[in-house]
């Protein structure tokens, strides 16, 4: 899709598009200094210039201008707008179903042209909030559940996505495009998904904020699955406040993801999550520093941040050891692999069977498709994870034992430490806490924490027990406001001369 006429952008001369926040946008809307059409035009213009290099976006929504005009008209008519996401362009990861003109493929050629029955549960909530679906973000193919040798951010549809800060750096995955595109100001905000690190890790690698919610807090209905025990959908944004705005819009009960969303909906605070954006949110918080996550080099890198946390009133409980670490390590390395292998086959088969149209109806079909249509790169990376999953046969004795070990590891490891030490959160360098949070369905937030000598970003993550999002938001926002570390990627003037269509 070639986009050439963006004349309306110049009309919003008093508005700074780069690094803009939802607060900035909503104020500009109210002051009649900005329209949703101008906002969409800006992002589409930036996508046209940068995406051929960054490869963060698979498709833009051909109805984006229509949706923007609709939002502008609703605002102009004085309609009662209850959501702060109204008129805001949102980028959606390519494994989240949209019942529109966009594909939903998990980055795979096998699902190009397939037709989903419904919008995903979170997409319904975005549309109800008046948000504009801007397009589909690229991702590691099949959310990294295809091949153990496939690079982060690569898929057969688009190729290799790049880190906007340092092109040679790992952009991480599997929500690669959601993180890289938001970081590079190609979208206002984005949605990602996580099974084991796929929100926290790319957020860490691309200097953005990622919230990995408690499993079930956001609906997984219509999301191409790996494990309903671990899958979750969350925001990836440039600021904690924007991430919280998106979280508020997408949480809640969904009858198509029952009983998980019913159980988790009891965690949602009355009045939503925005109330926890407190500048003094670190005061009196007990934050754990574990030897199992922080090595000596990490301690040096993050020492300044530890000092900041203390200065802002947090109590740091250091030199911690995760109880029963052998049990925990076995769950992370062995049991999780066994469980995910069986779950991914069952869950993917169920998803594919519900599609209105598709060339593949099972994992076996996907494997066969890949063999027939394999490009040189696809052959190089293979599909060993999928082939191992295809050999499983439901939840048998081996899988039940693995799941039991995971449950024990959570109860007598992370949960035991959090409760006995009365911790509000466990701190992690980068996204190193991701697997620990994944196996128990616990929430976590990554916040930008700095850049190394080469300019490669790194973050800091805070993880807590199920339903602890309010506390984690206070901590993350307090840290962000105290440090204000995030900066946009370096400019790349040669993008201006690229006119390729995406």
Q: Strand order, biggest sheet? A: 1-3-2-6-8-7-12-13-11-9-10
Shape: globular
Q: In terms of quaternary structure, what is this? A: single chain
Instruction: Indicate the mean pLDDT.
Output: 95
Please report the distance between the alpha carbons of the first and last residues.
6 Å
Write down the Rg. 22 Å
* Class by alpha and beta content: alpha/beta
CATH class: Alpha Beta
Beta-strand percentage?
5-15%
Unreliable stretches covering 5 or more consecutive residues: 1-6, 495-502
CATH superfamily: Amidase signature (AS) domain
Write down how many β-strands occur, each being a DSSP E stretch of 2 or more residues. Answer: 13
H and E order: HHEHEHEEEHEHEEHHEHEHHHHHEHEEH
> Which architecture does the CATH hierarchy give at level 2?
Alpha-Beta Complex
Helix fraction, binned, reads 25-40%
Pfam family, one: Amidase
Protein name: Amidase domain-containing protein
């Amino acid at each position: 899709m070639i986009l050439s006429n963006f004349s309306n952008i110049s009309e919003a001369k008093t508005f700074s598009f780069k690094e803009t926040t939802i607060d900035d946008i909503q104020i500009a809307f109210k002051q009649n200094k900005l329209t949703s059409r101008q906002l969409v035009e800006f992002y589409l213009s930036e996508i046209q210039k940068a995406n051929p290099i960054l490869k963060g976006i698979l498709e833009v929504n051909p109805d984006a201008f229509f949706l923007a005009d609709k939002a502008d008209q609703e605002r102009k008519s004085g309609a009662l707008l209850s959501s702060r996401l109204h008129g805001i362009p949102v980028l959606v990861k390519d494994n989240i179903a949209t019942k529109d003109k966009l594909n939903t493929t998990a980055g795979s050629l096998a699902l190009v042209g397939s037709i989903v029955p419904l919008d995903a549960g979170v997409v319904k909530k975005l549309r109800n909030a008046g948000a504009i679906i801007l397009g589909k973000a690229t991702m590691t193919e099949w959310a990294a559940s295809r091949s153990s040798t496939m690079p982060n951010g690569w898929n057969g549809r688009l190729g290799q996505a790049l880190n906007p800060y340092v092109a040679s750096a790992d952009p991480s995955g599997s929500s690669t495009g959601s993180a890289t595109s938001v970081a590079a100001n190609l979208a206002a905000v984005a949605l990602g998904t996580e099974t084991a690190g796929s929100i926290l890790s790319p957020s860490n690698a691309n200097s953005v904020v990622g919230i990995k919610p408690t499993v079930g807090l956001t609906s997984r209905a219509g999301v191409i699955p790996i494990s309903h025990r671990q899958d979750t959908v969350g925001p990836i944004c440039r600021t904690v406040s924007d991430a919280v705005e998106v979280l508020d819009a997408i949480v809640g009960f969904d009858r198509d993801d029952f009983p998980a969303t019913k159980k988790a909906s009891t965690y949602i605070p009355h009045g939503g999550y925005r109330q926890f954006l407190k500048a003094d949110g670190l005061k009196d918080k007990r934050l754990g520093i574990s030897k199992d996550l922080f090595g000596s080099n990490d301690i040096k890198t993050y020492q300044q941040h530890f000092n900041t946390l203390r200065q802002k009133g947090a109590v740091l409980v250091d030199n911690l050891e995760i109880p029963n670490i052998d049990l925990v390590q076995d769950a992370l390395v062995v049991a999780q692999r066994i469980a995910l292998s069986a779950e991914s086959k069952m869950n993917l088969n169920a998803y594919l069977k519900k599609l209105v149209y598709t060339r593949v109806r099972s994992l076996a079909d996907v494997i066969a498709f890949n063999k027939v249509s394999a490009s040189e790169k696809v052959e190089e990376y293979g599909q060993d994870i999928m082939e191992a999953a295809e050999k499983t046969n439901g939840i048998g004795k081996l899988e039940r034992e693995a799941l039991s070990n995971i449950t024990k590891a959570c109860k007598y490891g992370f949960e035991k430490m959090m409760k006995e030490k009365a911790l509000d959160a466990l701190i992690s360098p980068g996204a190193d806490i991701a697997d620990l949070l994944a196996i128990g369905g616990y929430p976590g937030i990554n916040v930008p924490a700095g850049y190394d000598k080469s300019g490669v970003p790194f973050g800091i993550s805070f993880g807590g027990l199920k339903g602890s999002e309010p506390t984690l938001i206070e901590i993350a926002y307090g840290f962000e406001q105290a440090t204000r570390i995030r900066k946009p990627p370096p400019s790349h003037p040669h993008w201006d001369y690229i006119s390729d269509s995406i």
